[in-house]
Automatic annotation (TrEMBL):
InterPro entries: Metalloenz_LuxS/M16, Pept_M16_N, Peptidase_M16_C, Peptidase_M16C_assoc, PreP_C
Any Pfam family: Peptidase_M16_C
SUPFAM superfamilies for this protein: LuxS/MPP-like metallohydrolase
Enzyme Commission identifier(s): 3.4.24.-
Highest rank taxon of the organism: Bacteria
Sample GO molecular function, one term: hydrolase activity
This protein's name: Peptidase M16 inactive domain protein
Domain Peptidase M16C associated: 463-712
């Protein structure tokens, strides 16, 4: 490798070549001599290739100009003169990742694909987008993606609209996002981190077209770019393409994108209000954040050390700082996080489920607890367990289906952006050595002393609920816009109406065939005709069915235990979900929960408990509900792992009242923070629960569970003994040998030892008997409007098409692509200003359409209702139809990690979906025609006519549209 250093390859000078053993790759750092572009290429055997181009973008205000530029560059370019080439790529690419991301100090444009031709096409479209965008001359791009005044006619009220504007309204509907914004503005009053790169909805409408284009011209130049390449590719051909098509057309220019270092402004303690619905309870809804600035950005070892400490202090069930705060009654849900990827990283402690008066207690408790730990020492077994978790995660490198190269590229930017070694963030062996040595010294205590106890650079910020605050804000904004409208002349008002109509016309007008033809497209011949096989072997071990899934796992075994939940009643269901949330975090007959947590950390890569339900492939009303215990460990630790599974499933006890109370109150406080952010998930499950037994079961762990937790948290101190008894009874009812099926994903050589370890566990389980009765629900349409203090909506409509006599076909998967990136993209996102929309078409007939962070309500429903007519006359060229087929397969053929492969195998097992049936569905996708899509119009018409509707969002908007609903209800009871 050293021989290549100093050589020039197609305009790039190789500055460095090194092996990165931790990821099995060879790294080459280059610089394009003419343009100044930086390049990092990591050569590996991974066929899932990644390309990313990033720019250091440092805004000076909260207009959201980096975020709006990120959206807008992808709205047409020199080579690709379409309105949205990004959407056309999603429709017709085999990409394994395609997106763009705005960070506080950088903007990234990553793509990935396993197909060489497709990968080159993706690079071409993205490079043309960032270097030659249409947005510089087309003001309508800023209007659509950023913001604009909207007026349907001269007599209409004036309003703001725009995709980023509405997206950020949704973001700031979550109180934790508001809290973070206050924290950053206080900690960094003089640098780019003190403003909102995503955009503050109150500030976005001050962005002018001139400032928008000036920002682009300042930062979007190769001299300010960072190009990342990863995977198995022809390095010379790739560099030649980038040079010849793009970089050789630019010369180096100095770009002032440096990030200033903020000097400590002093310690800060502040309180701010946030809005909740007018009838929402405010008790226990205060949030606090204590955030320290850690001034060592380029030290990945310190970052890993903070992750270890965060787990020991706050995240672990036995976390000492969390316990001290909880025991003092400061809050119910206490979390912490080390945020790197900033020049000056942060360590933040977040406390939810609190009261305003608790603010005064936080600093004294934190300081006393940390002082005691520094003086007396941190528990070494707790540190070792936390370090094992961190190391396991690094070595496993499982990113839940996302390409490895994507995550590695983001990590490299954590140092590269600040002119430090980009490979430092990928190398962890030396860091782990230092961290292990630190177990024998005062290394961890010194970190607490230096970066927290002696650090004056912090902010303690509280957010206090204010009833009707959102409505007051919206009312003031409407009054401001009305007052502004009065200052306009008749001609100016006509101009705004005309520009509104012109934008609508642009949005409704399809791209020309010539423009569409500029996007390169694969042919159907390029597509794999065979569905990917998932190898699995059904065996019996000590009387229990074990499904073995062979895979290369780098010495890790994945064990997923499924306990069948037939026999559970509707009254027991919320307690089953509660059991899944507390199991593993309570005492056992052998150990305290703290001792148990230590053993889990020492011997496993993490244990997760959940509840799920699998719809039967053939019977639309049948499903298999399961209680799932999932664990992973190194092959050498499977015996200890199986012993822990045995202890948790057979010896857990719930009699420690204070621990049970603490967990219930923590769960409820966590839901308070997460519910609105997860609004799309809640309304989709809730709506389908009106018509579908499996979804009624799933709703038991979503919206219905949140309401159950709210009631339970209010009475848990009186009912703790009763709840403990219920949980104990359920544990004994569920954890039986007869109900158990286990999946083992791993390497064949390790299976025998795993089977032997599992057989000991199986022998300790009570035999029980397999139940057959399903949980029964009364299905009925409710048409609910769920009122919150949020500023946007999640609007869902749907039902079950099999109840109308229709069958599932692969064409529905293609329709999913057509709707998400065609009809709904245009109607809901482009024209409606929502952040997006999604669909679900399930084999059991359940289907739902849902908008995401949507400023509208009625108009979105009208778009759903007009869909059948659109489908009845659907007409696109063969080329466009092929794109939809390709885009569909890109979402089907996700590269499988070992854990995903095991999950896919068990989904087939429980649903009964055969390889033949899956192949038949794939064939239907590959052969889908325009007529197949038209034939789906009656299916959509029947389901839309059922008029099943569920909406979560702004209390004011829902109340104004109350005639759409049969019931209005608050988020919590």
């Amino acid at each position: 490798m050293a021989d290549i250093v100093g050589k020039q390859i197609h305009g790039f000078r190789v500055q460095r070549a090194e092996t990165v053993r931790e990821i099995g790759g060879k790294a080459y750092e280059l610089r394009h001599e003419q343009s100044g572009a930086r390049v990092l290429y990591i050569q590996t055997e991974d066929d899932n290739k990644v390309f990313s181009i990033s720019f250091r973008t440092t805004p000076k205000d909260s207009t959201g100009v980096p975020h709006i530029c990120e959206h807008s560059t992808l709205c047409g370019s020199r080579k690709f003169p379409l309105k949205e080439p990004f959407v056309e790529l999603v429709k017709g690419s085999l990409n394994t990742f395609l997106n763009a991301m705005t960070f506080p100090d950088k903007t990234m444009y990553p793509v990935a694909s396993r197909n060489d031709r497709d990968f080159k096409n993706l690079m071409d479209v993205y490079l043309d987008a960032v270097f030659f965008p249409a947005m510089l001359k087309d003001r309508q791009v800023l209007m659509q993606e950023g913001w604009h005044y909207e007026m349907a006619d001269e007599d209409s009220p004036m309003s703001y609209s725009g995709v980023v504007y509405n997206e950020m309204k949704g973001v700031f509907s979550s109180p934790d996002a508001q809290l973070e914004r206050h924290v950053m503005s206080l900690l960094f009053p003089q640098t780019t981190y003190g403003v909102e790169s995503g955009g503050d909805p109150d500030v976005i409408p001050t962005l002018t077209f001139e400032d928008f284009t000036a920002f682009y011209r300042t930062y979007y130049h190769p001299s300010n770019s960072y190009i990342f390449l990863y995977g198995n590719m022809d390095m010379e051909a790739t560099l030649a393409f980038i040079d010849e098509e793009y970089l050789r057309h630019f010369t180096y220019t100095s770009t002032d994108s440096a990030i200033a270092r903020q000097t400590c402004p002093g310690s800060i303690v502040k309180t701010f209000p946030y809005g909740v619905a007018s009838d929402e309870k405010t008790a226990g809804k205060t949030l606090h954040s204590l955030t320290y600035v850690v001034d060592d950005a380029a030290d990945p070892t310190l970052g890993l050390a903070f992750k270890v400490l965060t787990y020991v202090l706050v995240t672990s069930p036995a976390a000492v700082l969390k316990k001290a705060l909880s025991d003092a009654g400061v809050g119910k849900d206490i979390t912490a996080d080390f945020q790197d990827g900033l020049l000056q990283p942060l360590w933040s402690l977040s406390i939810n489920g609190s009261e305003p008066s608790a603010q005064a207690k936080i600093l004294p408790i934190v300081r006393q607890t940390l002082t005691d730990l520094v003086h007396n020492g941190i528990d070494r077994q707790a540190l070792e367990g936390a370090l094992n978790r961190v190391e396991f995660t690094l070595r496993e490198a499982d990113f839940a289906g996302r390409p490895k190269g994507l995550i590695y590229g983001i990590r490299c930017m954590d140092t590269w952006l600040y002119d430090k070694d980009p490979l430092a963030a990928l190398r962890y062996e030396e860091s782990l050595r230092i961290l292990r040595q630190g177990l024998q010294t005062k290394y961890y205590e010194d970190i607490l002393q230096t970066y927290l106890l002696q650090n004056p650079y912090y902010a303690l910020v509280s957010l206090v609920p204010e009833r009707g605050g959102t409505e007051q804000h919206d009312r003031k904004q409407a009054e401001t816009l009305a007052a502004y409208k009065k200052t306009l002349s008749a001609a100016e008002i006509k101009d705004i109406v005309a520009s509104t109509k012109a934008l609508k016309k642009r949005q409704e007008t399809p791209d020309t065939a010539a423009a569409l033809a500029t996007i390169p497209v694969l042919s159907r011949r390029d597509l794999a005709s065979q569905a990917e096989a998932v190898e699995m072997h059904k065996e019996t071990v000590a009387g229990v069915t074990v499904v073995r899934v062979p895979d290369r796992t780098n010495g890790i075994t994945y064990i997923d235990a499924y306990f069948d939940l037939h026999g559970i009643t509707a009254a027991e269901l919320p307690y089953v979900y509660l059991l899944s949330d507390v199991l593993g975090d309570m005492d056992t007959r052998r150990r305290t929960y703290a001792e148990l947590a230590s053993q889990i950390d020492l011997y496993t890569g993490g244990l997760d408990v959940s509840v799920a339900a699998f719809s039967d492939y053939q019977d639309a009303t049948a499903y298999t509900p399961v209680f799932k215990v999932k664990v992973k460990s190194l092959n050498g630790n499977v015996a200890q792992t199986a012993a822990l599974l045995q202890e948790i499933t057979t010896a857990s006890v719930f009699t420690k009242r204070e621990r049970l109370i603490e967990l219930v109150e923590e769960l409820k406080a966590g839901w308070d923070m997460d519910a609105f952010r997860r609004g799309h998930t809640l309304v989709m499950h809730r709506l389908l629960s009106y018509v579908s037994p499996v979804e009624a079961f799933s709703d038991g762990g979503e919206f219905s569970y949140y309401r159950f937790l709210t009631k339970l948290a209010a009475t848990i101190r009186e009912r703790a003994d009763e709840v403990a008894k219920t949980l104990q009874t359920l544990l004994e009812k569920i954890m039986t040998k007869a109900a158990l099926t286990v999946a083992v994903t791993g390497e064949g050589a390790a299976y025998e030892a795993t089977a032997q370890a599992l057989s000991s566990w199986f022998g300790a389980l009570p035999q029980g008997r397999r139940q057959t009765a399903l949980c029964r629900f009364t299905l009925q349409r409710k048409n609910e409007g769920i009122m919150t203090g949020g500023k946007v909506q999640y609007v869902a409509k749907g039902g079950n098409f099999r109840q109308h006599g229709f069958a599932y076909t692969g064409a529905l998967a293609v329709l999913d692509t057509i709707l998400q990136y065609g009809y709904l993209w245009t109607k809901i996102r482009v024209q409606g200003g929502a952040y997006g929309a999604m669909t679900r078409f399930c084999g059991n007939g359940d289907m739902v359409l849902c908008s995401y962070r949507d400023p509208n309500l009625r108009s979105s429903i009208e778009a759903y209702d007009a869909l059948p007519d659109y489908l009845a006359t659907f007409d696109v060229s063969d080329r466009e139809m092929t794109k939809y087929v390709i885009g569909t397969l890109s979402r089907i053929d996700i590269p499988l990690t070992p854990s995903l492969r095991g999950a896919k195998a068990m989904s087939r097992y429980f649903t009964g979906l055969t390889a033949e049936a899956e192949q038949r569905r794939r064939d239907q996708v590959l052969q889908a025609t325009v007529q197949d899509i038209r034939d789906l119009a009656p299916l959509l018409r029947a389901v839309m006519a059922d008029n099943n509707l569920c909406v979560m969002g702004s209390e004011g908007i829902i109340r104004r549209e109350k005639e759409l609903f049969t019931s209005l209800l608050p988020l919590t009871e």
